[in-house]
């Protein structure tokens, strides 16, 4: 079932905000929350994340039905990429590499910002490139 394209973009905006706060405050708890959200998005799909629920219940009723839909697979892959960066963001400082944690959070923030502000989902684009590459090799 396809999803409203505005949902992942809303989720990216909330994610960008959360990650910006993480960079400013250094909150491991907030980064753990965001990483959990990425894990839910990876395993269950972006529409089942807390931000997806917020979009469905509070935002979508106010902005009306979708005018465009997309496959949930690329945003789900993007959540997996976010999950990777979230885990690295948590592990870096625990392993004595504060810079690695900050860099990982910064990369995830940049990707979330691109998606929220410009509708350009880096993870989705990587997913499509990988799909093309694997289909071309067959």
Overview of the structural elements:
The mean pLDDT is 97. The chain has a two-stranded antiparallel sheet. The radius of gyration is 15 Å and the shape is globular. It has 138 residues and is mainly α. It has 6 helices and 2 strands.
Entry keywords:
single chain; 138 residues; mainly alpha; two-stranded antiparallel sheet; 6 helices; 2 strands
Topology:
Blueprint: E1 3-4, H1 6-25, H2 28-44, H3 50-63, E2 69-70, H4 73-94, H5 98-118, H6 122-136
Antiparallel strand pairs: 1-2
What's the short story on this structure?
This protein is an all-alpha fold and 138 residues long.
Q: Count of DSSP helices?
A: 6
Strand content: under 5%
Determine the N-to-C terminus distance.
27 Å
Question: Could you give a short account of the major beta sheet?
Answer: 2 strands, antiparallel
Major beta sheet, strand line-up: 1-2
Q: Strand tally, please?
A: 2
Q: Can you tell me the overall shape?
A: globular
Order of helices and strands: EHHHEHHH
For the CA atoms, what is the radius of gyration?
A: 15 Å
Poorly predicted sequence stretches spanning 5 or more consecutive residues: none
Query: Roughly what is the average pLDDT, rounded to an integer?
Result: 97
């Amino acid at each position: 079932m396809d999803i409203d394209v505005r949902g992942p973009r809303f989720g990216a905006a909330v994610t960008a905000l959360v990650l910006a706060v993480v960079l400013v405050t250094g909150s491991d708890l907030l980064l753990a929350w965001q990483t959990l959200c990425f894990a839910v998005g990876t395993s269950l799909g972006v529409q089942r994340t807390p931000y997806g629920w917020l979009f469905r219940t509070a935002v979508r009723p106010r902005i009306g039905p979708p005018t465009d839909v997309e496959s949930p697979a690329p945003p789900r892959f993007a959540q997996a990429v976010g999950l990777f960066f979230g885990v690295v963001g948590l592990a870096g400082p625990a392993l004595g590499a504060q810079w690695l944690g900050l860099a990982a959070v910064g990369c995830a923030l940049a990707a979330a910002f691109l998606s929220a502000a410009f509708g350009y989902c880096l993870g989705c684009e990587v997913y499509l490139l990988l799909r093309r590459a694997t289909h071309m090799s067959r």
